[in-house]
């Protein structure tokens, strides 16, 4: 005799069967049929076809049947608005029923039917229900106003429901008050203008406080949340509110407790001149926060995220409660990580021994993520609690001895920070670190180790050998390791110039000539120029004193923290982001802030360690020592072709010796001049492939044509350089394009005049699309004929697909999703791109410049997924999904299009753009 | 507020959905399922999908996923979801997929009664039970015969009174009030046997079946013990603040009157000790395990239902042990060694010893297993808490009263 019988079906067609049962004369059978319909609905089956039949059952005395029909209506009315009207009469009649339960049910259900036509009929009954004699009906009606506002804000404002709702705030029944508050808060949140439609004032607040003690736990949450938005006039009012709220801290419902904490934290800000009161409140806040940690893990997690904020704002509150944050081995991982974070925030000289003992214990646990964070935490303790640094370092050394790979790597990363915080204190351990050089395989650890070697090059005898060993696989390293290597070698050179010249030249050439990474190249060129023009300046820049690592680099920024304190218990507090940053459709003007403090002005900001680039004593002599370099000449001119006899000509090798040393160093990039980047030339708006030789001189009877395709400001162009390598002048140039796959044709004449022997001329031919089409193979092949006074020459070139991408290629998210689903899987092509550099963001940026639009970016299991769309000039839409893995130079590209033939040229374009 | 609720079974199928505002397609649950695939037991309770927030709890094998479109207090939702499961358990004695499917009409009616437009409406089981009668065979048969339904057509009286948790007109032939003082010891004991942290999580659960509107007062011998308490809404906080007594009109039936936490500020007695010795050798030889358990600071009471659960290091292949008391089992897949001891009768101390086979060549360093200890001590509240008396006002009969104490292990870990 269970309800599961409703799920069984007969063969004859379920809907048909149900239909006849719904129209049965027998009440009992009707009810059973409606139950079956509801059963199908719960599991997500579509039973909307039965709408008229179900609505027919609505007129009944049987409350259960009525409720079931209402359940059905709420789900399907939207899809059948015309049919829903049929129900209106019954609703209006029910709103007049003598039974308050039925009145409430009717007004409640009507509000849930989100059909415009119904809402018109809703106003009158709702107005009556808001003044109903029965509080149960009033409280239901209050919520209904919020529902109506969601459907039609203007109607609520015009019909005066807001005022009626405001009146309910002083209702005699606390439950009605609570629901009115909830409805008002929701309306305020959703308000179109972004500012609250109903402001709270002192008398209403008083009424709310009275209702607070008597209403249900959920009502208490609503009231407390409303209170947190109220700014008391003075500290006396704040004081009295605090006193009346404090008992809520002992509530069994965690949501009530956390909302109360929010209000108190906010009001304490106003009471800062009454230190005694504040410390009493602080004492009262600790136990409830601790109690939250003995609840279910989900509650613990939310509580911990909030405690994290509380601890940052008022570290005193929980300073004695360190032990409750100790990690139990069967805590879920998300709880463990949060506890660890708070442990570090609470670490102080008094409890550091205990904390370290715990952290060491955690570092031997099984869960890798947790172990890493624990090791990192030890480093943070060392930086935070100065007297404990010694112990932390020895603990880290012990951990390094375990030789567990990821522990060692993590330890080296934090030791780097410890070195920065306490210069010239723990360098004795460097030798131990160097022993583990070979085992490091993670970029961050390698980069840290390289940094250490570079920073302390003068103390490590074989620093040059160590760095040299890294250089062997320079190009296989991650970008951050490459950058560190470059810097470390330059540091080494500045410290020990005598024997490391070769090394520095080697690394500079690796960085500037062989690398595709613009950051690396730029840094390489800067070092190079620094070294070549002014070694003294180089020393000052590269070996400058570094800013001390701040104790709390991971603290939230104070203004953000203050804003988040106002949002304790909300999603914002879980994400540690202001609601404006992630809640959709939220007005920009509703930022919350802590109330201004009382009489006392802000306490002095904690002193941040500042950086003053220290002009080293005796620096002049140091410069003099620098290999007795010839720096007598004037400061070098901007061109790298400076003739400074640097390093006795050593760098000349590097500079390439030619008349255009810089350009020589970056062969093949003459147009986009990489050095130009350094010297301030604006980067090209979209990727332009380097010019290729289309017509070699030997085939063109002395005419040589180099060319490429560009797209600038939406205009497709063919950029060509004509060189006359023949002995006689050329004239009468003309160009013609064969029919091609994309219908590209010249939109103007070729503007090349006569070419004298040995002369060259640049020409830019505007192109248009829409000409005659003929399918070529490969698709983007273009056959060109160029005529001059000597002959007609034919050649073929490939149009890079990206110049054919139009600027209206951005799909709406939803359209993208549906299109992606619609295109059959057979039309999906995959491709792997090797040697990808840059992050998802930089790639997306590059793509946008080339009319490839990123629709969405997601991070799935550490992989960045970019969803992109583009449109070709011939209106072919292409949808792409680019999968990037940070640290992995391979990217996977999946393409979906109704015309998959275009795939290969799009892949070529992608490769070219990504590597540009 | 809560827009929709999905209930998902362990294999990842959504078997119930309920929408309080517009319908949100169930595909939104994919984000939850994705997280669940990544770590089946550690799904973060708050997940963000592009347009929604998913707040979930896992209980009794099913996952409840609440979906919200806007800013919402996550604890509010989590508390509510737990309340939903509590209600189901109250109605159907359990909350599993089969049971929910068997009772889906009542479940649906309940969900509709508990939440309106995302705002909680009625979550007190007393009120709900008046609105929607819990199913039982007798009533189902009676309803089929008489054509009545199990949905009440009158407004529950408690809904709007000042004591919403109690229904009116309660009548019992035998009036009784039972209190269970349950204390759970959470502790971390380090290798050497020293206490790293210890705290007591205490609860007072009641089962009160009294006629009329009784007004109860519970007094303690030593209320000073409490520094951190949270109460059922029925407790009058003012009287607690001023007189340290619990004064309340109880809900009908079972409920948790208060919970308390005795923590870092006071010394907590540790009623059990474990002497352990585990040696693992990496050269492929057999390792050794030796464990002895004994009572300590039990105030003369007996330890019962003692069980040890050890999550062995990954390198341990199998164990062959002899126990002088109880049974043991080792699961080589999950690497969990379970030793069920039972009662500890002095002077014989339970001991288990034997050899442990280790995968050859495996790295045995850095593997520090932890022992999860379970025990119960009847008739003892380890904090020393004692109820002094229970007084009743507002009713003329003499109730039968009783208090029971019990101490249990909560999260009690011994590090090896």
UniProtKB/TrEMBL annotation, chain A:
Residues 687-796 form the Clathrin adaptor alpha/beta/gamma-adaptin appendage Ig-like subdomain domain. SUPFAM superfamilies: ARM repeat, Clathrin adaptor appendage domain, Subdomain of clathrin and coatomer appendage domain. It is found in: Endomembrane system. SMART domains: Alpha_adaptinC2, B2-adapt-app_C. It is a peripheral membrane protein. Keywords: Membrane, Protein transport, Transport. Belongs to the adaptor complexes large subunit family. This is AP complex subunit beta. The gene is LOC112046043.
TrEMBL record, chain B:
Residues 174-415 form the MHD domain. GO terms for biological process: intracellular protein transport; vesicle-mediated transport. Gene3D superfamilies: 3.30.450.60, Mu homology domain, subdomain B. It is found in: Cytoplasmic vesicle membrane; Golgi apparatus. The keyword Nuclease does not apply. Transmembrane segments: none annotated. CDD domains: AP3_Mu_N (cd14837). It is a peripheral membrane protein. Belongs to the adaptor complexes medium subunit family. This is AP-3 complex subunit mu-1.
């Amino acid at each position: 005799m269970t309800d599961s019988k409703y799920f069984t079906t007969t063969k004859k067609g379920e809907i048909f069967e149900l239909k006849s049962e719904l129209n049965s004369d027998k009440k009992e059978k009707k009810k059973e049929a409606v139950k079956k319909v509801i059963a199908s609905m719960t599991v997500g089956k579509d039973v909307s076809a039965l709408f008229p039949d179900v609505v027919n059952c609505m007129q009944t005395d049987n409350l259960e049947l009525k409720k079931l029909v209402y359940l059905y209506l709420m789900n399907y009315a939207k899809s059948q608005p015309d049919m829903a009207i049929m129900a209106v009469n019954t609703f209006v009649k029910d709103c007049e029923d003598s039974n308050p339960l039925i009145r409430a049910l009717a007004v409640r259900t009507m509000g849930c039917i989100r059909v415009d036509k119904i809402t018109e009929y809703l106003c009158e009954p709702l107005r009556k229900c808001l003044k109903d004699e029965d509080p149960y009906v009033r409280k239901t009606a209050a919520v209904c106003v919020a529902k109506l506002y969601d459907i039609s804000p203007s109607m609520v404002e015009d019909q005066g429901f807001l005022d009626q709702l405001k009146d309910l705030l002083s209702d005699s029944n606390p439950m009605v008050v609570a629901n009115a508050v909830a409805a008002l808060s929701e309306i305020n949140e959703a308000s179109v203008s972004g500012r609250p439609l109903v402001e709270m004032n002192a008398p209403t607040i008083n009424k709310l406080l009275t209702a607070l003690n008597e209403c249900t736990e959920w009502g208490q949450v609503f009231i407390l949340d409303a209170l947190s938005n109220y700014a008391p006039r003075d500290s006396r009012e704040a004081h009295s509110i605090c006193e009346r709220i404090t008992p809520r801290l002992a509530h069994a419902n965690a949501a009530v407790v956390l909302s109360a904490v929010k209000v108190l934290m906010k009001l304490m800000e106003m009471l800062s001149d009454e230190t005694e009161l504040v410390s009493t409140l602080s004492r009262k806040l600790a136990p409830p926060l601790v109690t939250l940690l003995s609840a279910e893990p989900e509650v613990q997690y939310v509580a911990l995220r909030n405690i994290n904020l509380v601890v940052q704002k008022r570290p005193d509150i929980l300073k004695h409660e360190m032990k409750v944050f100790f990690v139990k081995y069967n805590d879920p991982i998300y709880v463990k990580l949060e506890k660890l974070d708070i442990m570090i925030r609470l670490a102080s000289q008094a409890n550091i021994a205990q904390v370290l003992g715990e952290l060491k214990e955690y570092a031997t646990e099984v869960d890798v993520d947790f172990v890493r964070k624990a090791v990192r935490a030890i480093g943070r303790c060392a930086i935070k609690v100065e007297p404990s640094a010694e112990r932390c370092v020895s603990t880290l050394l012990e951990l390094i001895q375990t030789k567990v790979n990821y522990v060692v790597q993590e330890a080296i990363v934090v030791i780097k920070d410890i070195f920065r915080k306490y210069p010239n204190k723990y360098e004795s351990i460097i030798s131990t670190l160097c022993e583990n050089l070979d085992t490091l395989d993670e970029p961050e650890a390698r980069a840290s180790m390289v940094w250490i070697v570079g920073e302390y090059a003068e103390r490590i005898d074989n620093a040059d050998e160590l760095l040299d060993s890294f250089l062997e696989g320079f190009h296989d390293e991650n970008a951050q390791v490459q950058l560190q290597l470059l810097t470390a070698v330059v540091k080494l050179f500045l410290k020990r110039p005598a024997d490391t010249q070769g090394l520095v030249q080697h690394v500079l050439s690796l960085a500037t000539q062989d690398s595709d990474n613009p950051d690396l190249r730029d840094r390489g060129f800067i070092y190079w120029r620094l070294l070549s023009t002014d070694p003294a300046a180089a020393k000052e820049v590269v070996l400058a004193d570094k800013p001390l690592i701040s104790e709390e680099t991971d603290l939230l920024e104070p203004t953000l923290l203050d804003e988040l304190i106002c949002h304790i218990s909300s999603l914002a507090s879980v994400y540690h982001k202001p609601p404006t940053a992630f809640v959709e459709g939220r007005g920009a003007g509703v930022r919350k802030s802590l109330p201004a403090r009382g009489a006392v002005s802000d306490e002095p900001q904690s002193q941040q360690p500042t950086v003053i680039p220290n002009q080293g004593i005796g620096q002049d002599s140091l410069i003099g020592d620098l290999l007795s370099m010839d720096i007598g000449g004037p400061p070098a001119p901007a061109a790298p072709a400076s003739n400074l006899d640097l390093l006795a000509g050593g760098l000349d090798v590097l500079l390439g010796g030619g008349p255009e040393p810089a350009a020589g160093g970056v062969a093949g990039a003459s147009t986009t001049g990489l050095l130009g980047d350094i010297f301030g030339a604006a980067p090209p708006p979209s990727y332009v492939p380097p010019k290729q030789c289309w017509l070699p001189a030997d085939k063109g009877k002395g005419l040589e044509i180099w060319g490429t395709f560009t797209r600038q400001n939406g205009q497709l162009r063919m950029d060509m350089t004509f060189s006359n390598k023949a002995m006689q002048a050329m004239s009468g140039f003309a160009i013609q394009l064969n029919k091609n796959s994309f219908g590209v044709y010249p939109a103007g004449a070729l503007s090349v005049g006569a070419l004298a022997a040995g002369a060259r001329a640049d020409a830019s031919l505007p192109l248009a699309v829409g000409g005659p089409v003929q399918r070529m193979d490969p698709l983007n092949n273009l056959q060109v004929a160029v005529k001059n006074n000597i002959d007609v020459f034919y050649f073929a070139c490939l149009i890079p697909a990206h110049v054919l991408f139009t600027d209206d290629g951005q799909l709406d998210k939803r359209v993208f999703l549906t299109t992606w689903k619609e295109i059959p899987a057979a039309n999906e092509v995959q491709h792997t791109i090797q040697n990808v550099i840059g992050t998802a963001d930089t790639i997306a940026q590059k793509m946008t410049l080339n009319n490839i639009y990123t629709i969405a970016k997601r991070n799935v299991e550490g992989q960045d997924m970019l969803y992109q769309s583009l449109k070709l000039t011939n209106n072919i839409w292409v949808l792409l999904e680019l999968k990037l893995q940070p640290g992995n130079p391979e990217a996977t590209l999946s393409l979906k299009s109704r015309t998959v033939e275009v795939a290969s040229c799009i892949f070529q374009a992608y490769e070219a753009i990504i590597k540009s | 507020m809560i827009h929709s609720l999905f209930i998902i079974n362990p294999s990842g199928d959504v078997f119930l959905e309920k929408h309080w505002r517009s319908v949100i397609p169930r595909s939104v649950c994919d984000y939850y399922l994705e997280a669940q695939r990544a770590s089946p037991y550690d799904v973060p309770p708050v997940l963000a999908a592009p347009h929604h927030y998913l707040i979930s709890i896992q209980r009794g094998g099913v996952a409840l996923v609440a979906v919200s479109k806007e800013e919402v207090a996550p604890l509010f939702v989590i508390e509510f979801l737990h309340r939903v499961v509590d209600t189901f358990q109250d109605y159907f004695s359990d909350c599993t997929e089969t049971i929910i499917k068997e009772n889906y009409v009542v479940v649906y009616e309940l969900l509709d009664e508990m939440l309106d437009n995302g705002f909680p409406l009625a979550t007190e089981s007393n009120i709900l039970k008046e609105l929607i009668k819990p199913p039982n065979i007798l009533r189902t048969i009676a309803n089929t015969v008489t054509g009545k339904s199990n949905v009440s057509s009158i407004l529950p009286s408690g809904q709007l009174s000042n004591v919403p948790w109690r229904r009116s007109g309660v009548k019992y032939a035998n009036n009784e009030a039972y209190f269970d003082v349950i204390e759970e010891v959470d502790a971390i004991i380090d290798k050497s046997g020293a206490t790293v942290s210890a705290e007591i999580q205490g609860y007072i659960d009641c089962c009160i079946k009294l006629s009329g509107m009784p007004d109860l007062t519970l007094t303690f011998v030593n209320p000073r013990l409490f520094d951190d308490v949270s109460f059922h809404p029925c407790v009058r906080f003012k009287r607690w603040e001023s007189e340290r007594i619990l004064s309340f009109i109880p809900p009908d039936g079972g409920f948790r009157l208060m919970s308390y936490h005795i923590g870092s500020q006071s010394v907590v007695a540790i009623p059990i000790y474990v002497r352990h010795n585990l040696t693992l050798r990496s050269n492929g030889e057999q390792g050794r395990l030796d464990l002895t358990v004994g009572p300590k600071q039990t105030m003369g009471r007996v330890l019962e239902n003692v069980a040890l659960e050890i999550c062995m290091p990954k390198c341990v292949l199998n164990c062959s042990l002899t126990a002088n008391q109880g049974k043991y089992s080792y699961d080589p897949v999950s690497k969990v060694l379970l030793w069920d001891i039972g009662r500890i009768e002095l002077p014989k101390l339970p001991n288990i010893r034997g050899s442990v086979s280790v995968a050859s060549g495996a790295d045995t360093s850095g593997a520090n297993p932890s022992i999860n200890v379970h025990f119960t001590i009847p008739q003892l509240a380890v904090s020393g808490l004692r109820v002094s008396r229970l007084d009743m006002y507002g009713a003329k009969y003499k109730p039968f009263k009783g208090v029971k104490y019990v101490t249990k292990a909560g999260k009690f870990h011994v590090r090896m």
